[in-house]
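Action item from last meeting closed. Structure (421 res):
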């Protein structure tokens, strides 16, 4: 048996002699790599070997495994084109019959067609790498032949498992409106991931990639936004999205909605095997909370706007949206989604929306983050929200800069450090 142990995580890998199909050796930069192909198609690669190790490793496999350690030639021409072919679960690109690079299908997280002749691959984050190491996260292919481009895309989706999401389907939500990235998608939930299926784009996202979740009622009394923060963004063309924003009709319910979980898990979710008459946003929030193991953040009841809701309408640059002062952070939705933790805020500053001498109906809020030179500017906030926002920010312990010089003449006065005089 051949064994390997990760010195950072302690994770071990054991390979049985009878399961190994072939071994090969090739040089990459100044180091050499040992490639082990298993009979079931799995591939293991171990780097960091030196040229001087070849004879020792070759003799070891010959004596104990009765396998020849073959040397593979690697292309050093520096060409960025070649011929692609499949070797089991690996996509190989060769130049003049020499290996340029190879990609394991299991490393592919997303297959995104960016044009008739282009295919973009997004890769899973390697959890065994050193935190300071750089890793490849995306690669794009240009294929002159449209027919072959379509064929390669379908093969990549099939072999990587990006089409199914992997495992048994837990449940399926149909026709979910998504604001970012915009479109209507069907959402399939699996054991380790969920899949968004749209007309032009599909996304498979692992639950471990979800870093935070927010359930936010909109002040129109009609919609609820469900915001998912992602550690690894999804891409649509050249645009990366670190947040997904789903928007539901507040009154939309689910009927005869089957959930493929055992009784113990359903009890934790506070759901039934078949759900009837429950709000869609509530059911989805409970399922995501269970599958990700993370809490769903809801608006802070300590802040109430003049309309009774927990957010303030404003604009960021040219984008209209809503700023939610939450318990531990500010969240601006919808485009772009901005999440600012209070611990990262250096100071905030209030100012008039214009510099005229007449009273203005609006004011602006600038948020300065630690380590950033330019503030995040939220404009056109209604004057009626000023007192409530000032009081909330002071209670949150956030420093208020230049409040007396804002010219608004409202609210409690404050020193530059944000404390009451």
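Sequence:
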């Amino acid at each position: 048996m051949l064994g390997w142990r990760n010195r950072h995580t302690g994770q071990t890998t054991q390979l049985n002699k009878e399961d190994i199909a072939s071994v090969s050796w090739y040089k990459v930069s100044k180091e050499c790599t040992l490639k082990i192909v298993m009979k079931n198609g799995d591939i293991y690669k171990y780097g960091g070997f030196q040229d001087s190790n070849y004879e020792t490793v070759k003799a070891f496999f010959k004596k104990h495994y009765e396998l020849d350690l073959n040397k593979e030639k690697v292309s050093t021409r520096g060409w960025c084109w070649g011929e692609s072919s499949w070797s089991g679960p690996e996509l190989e690109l060769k130049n003049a019959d020499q290996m340029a690079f190879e990609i394991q299908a299991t490393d592919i997280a997303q297959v995104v067609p960016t044009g008739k002749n282009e295919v973009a691959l997004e890769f899973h984050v390697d959890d065994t790498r050193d935190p300071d190491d750089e890793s490849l996260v995306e690669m794009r292919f240009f294929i002159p032949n449209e027919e072959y481009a379509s064929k390669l895309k379908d093969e990549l989706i099939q072999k990587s498992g990006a089409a199914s999401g992997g495992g048994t389907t837990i449940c399926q939500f149909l026709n979910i409106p998504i604001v970012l990235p915009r479109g209507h998608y069907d959402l399939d939930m699996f054991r380790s991931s969920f899949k968004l299926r749209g007309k032009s784009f599909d996304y498979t996202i692992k639950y471990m990639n979800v870093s935070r979740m927010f359930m936010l009622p909109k002040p129109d009394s009609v919609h609820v936004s469900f915001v998912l923060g992602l550690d690894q963004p999804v891409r649509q063309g050249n645009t990366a999205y670190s947040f997904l924003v789903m928007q539901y009709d507040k009154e939309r319910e689910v009927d005869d909605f089957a959930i493929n979980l055992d009784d113990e898990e359903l009890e934790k979710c506070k759901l039934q095997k078949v759900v009837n008459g429950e709000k869609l946003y509530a059911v989805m929030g409970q399922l995501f909370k269970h599958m990700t193991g993370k809490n769903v953040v809801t608006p802070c009841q300590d802040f109430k706007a003049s309309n009774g809701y927990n957010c303030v309408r404003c604009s960021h640059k040219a984008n209209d949206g809503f700023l939610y002062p939450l318990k531990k952070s500010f969240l601006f939705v919808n485009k772009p989604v901005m999440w600012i933790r209070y611990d990262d805020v250096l100071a905030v500053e209030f100012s008039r929306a214009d510099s005229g001498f007449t009273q203005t109906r609006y004011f602006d809020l600038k948020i300065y983050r630690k380590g950033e030179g330019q503030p995040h500017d939220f404009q056109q906030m209604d004057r009626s929200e000023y007192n409530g926002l000032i009081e909330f920010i002071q209670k949150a312990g956030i420093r208020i800069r230049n409040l007396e010089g804002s010219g608004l003449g409202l609210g409690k006065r404050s020193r530059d450090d944000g404390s009451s005089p």
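Note appended to the action item: The radius of gyration is 27 Å.
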